[in-house]
Amino acid sequence: MEQSTNNVEKKVKLGKRKIEIKKIENKTSRQVTYSKRRVGLFRKASELCVLCGAKIAIFVTSQKERLFTFAHPDVKSILNRFQKRDIYYNKYYQVENQEEDLNGVVGKLKFLEAEKSQLKELKKKELEKDDNSNNGFKKNIFWWEQDTSNMDLAELQQFRDAVEELRNNVKRKANEKLALEGYML
User: Fold this and answer.
1) What is the pTM of this model?
2) Beta bridge partners of 59
3) Staple 30 to which of 24, 138, 164, 166, CB 3.0 to 4.6 Å?
4) Which domain holds residue 161?
5) Does any domain span residue 155?
């Protein structure tokens, strides 16, 4: 019985083996290889999505410029997320990521509220200081509405510096609000 098994030639299986990566010259072989590998690539991407919950977009073009795509959940949502657009409106966005983003927004909001309360305190202290010193200014109008015609040079320079500081504070606050609104969109 041993002799009969030795006489039978074993069929050589190619199976998985390392191939040389170079351009396939035969057009038919190249097209077959392209089709099989494209299908294999899409299958592996699908498995990765199912196993790991990954979001994937793959674009493949043939030699004749035909476009083949694979995407999970869909190409548009992945591209929008990649470009940092519509991140809050993506219906496939996971709850964990939303919580992380929400925590970041809440943290920034708390920081801005703390700054706002500090500014109110400073303003209150300044108003108390101004009420105590008053320096001949009228109480019913804002300091920047004071008549400058009776001020000497030192007072005018101090007034100019205060107006510039006010302008810079207003500009900074406006930029902060715009940045916060831009972040929340």
Assistant:
1) 0.38
2) 69
3) 24
4) 134-185
5) yes
